[in-house]
């Protein structure tokens, strides 16, 4: 996805590319502890039990920070699309130095939220069952902060659903208002450039994006808050449930690139050409 966004002939605005880049960075930061800490921990937990405690603590902190950052930047991306399509006069907020200030502000807010999370939560990860334990009862403001995080997650997800719904309705209204000859396309003005997109495909992209991003966030809140309250799982069932947790985390981080390539024919063609070119060059080098 980063390769397509930063290609020479891309059709995406600079704010879109920069915000998507922050989401990609958040996903990569989240992937690092799974590869460097969790997998070695599964293989070496019995042999290096003492050292694993520090590694697990680092894993929990990095995962929490990257998840919070990804949620914030997903909301910022939704807000950017909403302003570009619905309120273009406010698009100045995502131009020039204001965009970099906004991105820096998002990182600082993510760090502040994560710092409070590190201080008020006591986290531990049990490798044998792939279960992450969190305890907020040891700190005075832990319960209040936990309620705040739950409310914040629901608020951001509902806000994203509302904005995506407004975008879809706006696209549908434009589609109906134009005449039969020009109803297949509409223009989005983003500063100096004007991008023409197919209405039906862009509308479908908005619906899929809303379903995967906002719906996935709400599903995650329900999974991590309601399922632990049910005491119907034995040890084997608990391990299966925690494997599902890990699968959900990986799947949710794949939501943005999945929608991007499912609804963007140009991106799929560019990636196909790029892969074919690299494969052909590699084969030629090996056969020489």
Characterize the structure shown:
There is one protein chain. With 288 residues, this protein is mainly alpha-helical. The chain has one domain (2-287): Up-down Bundle (Rhopdopsin 7-helix transmembrane proteins), CATH 1.20.1070.10. Helices cover 73% and strands 8% of the residues. It has nine helices and four strands. It has helices at 2-5, 14-44, 49-85, 96-120, 142-177, 199-226, 235-253, 255-262, 265-287, and strands at 122-126, 131-135, 185-190, 193-198. The protein has a two-stranded antiparallel sheet. Helix 3 (49-85) runs parallel beside helix 5 and helix 6 runs antiparallel to helix 8. The longest helix has 37 residues, at 49-85. It starts with a helix and ends with a helix. Residues 190-197 and 279-288 have low confidence and may be disordered. Keywords: Membrane, Transmembrane, Transmembrane helix. This is G_PROTEIN_RECEP_F1_2 domain-containing protein. It comes from Brugia timori.
Q: What's the end-to-end separation, in Å?
A: 32 Å
Mean pLDDT: 70
Number of domains: 1
CATH class: Mainly Alpha
Largest sheet: 2 strands, antiparallel
Q: Uncertain spans, ≥5 residues at pLDDT below 50?
A: 190-197, 279-288
The helix content is: over 70%
CATH structural architecture: Up-down Bundle
Q: Report the principal-axis shape.
A: globular
The CATH homologous superfamily name equals Rhodopsin 7-helix transmembrane proteins
Number of strands: 4
Instruction: Quickly count the helices.
Output: 9
Q: Which sequence of strands runs across the widest sheet?
A: 1-2
Radius of gyration: 22 Å
């Amino acid at each position: 996805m980063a390769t397509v966004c930063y290609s020479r002939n891309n059709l995406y605005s600079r704010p879109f590319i920069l915000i998507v880049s922050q989401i990609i960075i958040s996903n990569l930061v989240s992937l690092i502890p799974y590869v460097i800490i969790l997998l070695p921990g599964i293989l070496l937990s019995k042999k290096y039990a003492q050292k694993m405690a520090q590694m697990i603590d680092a894993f929990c902190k990095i995962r929490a920070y990257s998840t919070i950052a990804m949620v914030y930047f997903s909301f910022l991306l939704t807000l950017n699309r909403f302003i570009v399509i619905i309120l273009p006069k406010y698009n100045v907020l995502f131009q020039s130095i204001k965009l970099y200030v906004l991105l820096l502000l998002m990182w600082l807010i993510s760090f502040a939220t994560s710092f409070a999370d590190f201080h008020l939560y006591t986290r531990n990860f049990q490798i044998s069952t792939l279960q992450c334990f969190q305890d907020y009862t040891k700190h005075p403001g832990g319960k209040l902060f936990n309620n705040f995080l739950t409310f914040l997650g629901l608020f951001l997800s509902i806000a994203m659903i509302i904005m995506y719904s407004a975008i879809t309705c706006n696209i549908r209204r434009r589609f109906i208002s134009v005449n039969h000859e020009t109803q297949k396309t509409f223009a989005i003005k983003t500063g100096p450039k004007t991008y023409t997109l197919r209405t039906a495909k862009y509308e479908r992209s908005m619906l899929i994006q809303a379903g995967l991003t906002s719906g996935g966030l709400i599903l995650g809140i329900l999974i991590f808050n309601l399922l632990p309250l049910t005491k119907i799982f034995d040890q084997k069932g608990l391990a299966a449930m925690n494997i599902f947790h890990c699968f959900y985390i990986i799947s949710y981080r794949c939501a943005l690139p999945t929608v991007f390539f499912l609804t963007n024919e140009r991106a799929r063609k560019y990636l196909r050409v790029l892969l074919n070119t690299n494969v052909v060059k590699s084969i030629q080098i090996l056969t020489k």
